[in-house]
Specification:
By secondary structure, the chain is of the alpha/beta class. Helix content is about 45%, strand content about 15%. The chain has a single domain, classed as 3-Layer(aba) Sandwich (Carbamate kinase). The protein is built from twelve helices and eight strands. The chain is globular, with a radius of gyration of 18 Å.
């Protein structure tokens, strides 16, 4: 079942990729240029092969913190918003530079939860993605941290990426993390933990495994938010894979149908409805 499910991923033509702060930055918050360059090269290769790529990128607050020399994690909303305002510009400059080396143009898309909750704004955002992709532009998405408050924020980019995949009608969502996928227990604490390659359904047992999962110091999300992202994507008929962002080439491996990370499948009923539409 796992191999046939993986094989179907080769048919994905539009892919949303989310990359976390811990993958993009050092512990100091400074951009990990080597990793970013490898990621960009991989995504550029996918784009040149004819796939449509949407990147959801974390890291703005961490990068802003490093640039301003702040050694503590921001706690208040104004602090987070200020650091995001500084860091987002630096991140976009970095992406612009690296993608340009491969002849590709990027476009910044900043969203709040209101953009996916409001029908008209949702449609406007969808049209923006469609137009950018029709121009061959790589949309780079982040939450609009400089204006988002607790009432209108997604909370983390795992959730955001699932909404983006749904909004943009992606065929596949890939979450690049500092862990290889969903394990039977935390592999950093239990040497006997093993990777779960395929999740057909998000059961209470899966949720319990996730609640004991990992989270990095740099980002907001742990495994719980990734399971929630899988649920949102699955309800839209979109398969999702969690894979390591520390090893180059894994997005291409996932899109080629190779057994990498943990694959979450949408329910058969949802997938059938999507195919009928």
């Amino acid at each position: 079942m796992s191999s046939s499910a993986r094989t179907k991923l080769r048919n994905a033509r539009r892919i949303t990729i989310k990359v976390g702060s811990s993958t993009l930055t050092y512990d100091s918050g400074k951009p990990n240029l080597d990793r970013i360059e490898h990621l960009v090269r991989e995504l550029a290769d996918l784009a040149h092969s004819g796939l449509e790529v949407i990147l959801v990128s974390s890291g703005a607050i961490a990068v802003g913190r490093a640039r301003l020399g702040i050694d503590h994690r921001p706690k208040t909303t104004p602090e987070k918003q200020a650091l995001a305002a500084v860091g987002q510009g630096i991140l976009m400059q970095t992406y612009e530079k690296f993608f340009a080396e491969y002849g590709l143009t990027v476009g910044q898309v900043l969203l709040t939860k209101a953009d996916v909750d409001n029908g008209k704004r949702y449609e406007n955002a969808r049209n923006t993605f469609e137009t950018l992709l029709s121009y061959g532009v790589i949309p780079i998405v982040n939450e609009n941290d400089t204006v988002a408050t607790e009432e209108i924020e997604f909370g983390d980019n795992d959730t955001l990426s699932a909404y983006v995949a749904k909004l943009a009608k992606a065929d596949l969502l890939v979450l690049l993390s500092d862990i290889e996928g969903l394990y039977t227990s935390d592999p950093r604490q239990n040497p006997d933990a093993y990777l779960i390659p395929l999740v057909n359904e998000i059961t209470p047992e899966i949720e319990e495994l996730a609640s004991g999962g990992t989270g990095s110091d740099l980002g907001v999300g742990g495994m719980v938010t990734k399971i929630e992202a899988a649920r949102i994507a699955g309800e839209a008929g979109i398969p999702m894979v969690i894979a390591s962002g520390e090893e180059p080439g894994l997005v291409k491996a996932v899109s080629a149908g190779k057994e990498v990370g943990t694959l979450f499948l949408p329910s058969e009923q949802v997938e059938k409805r999507k195919q009928e539409v």
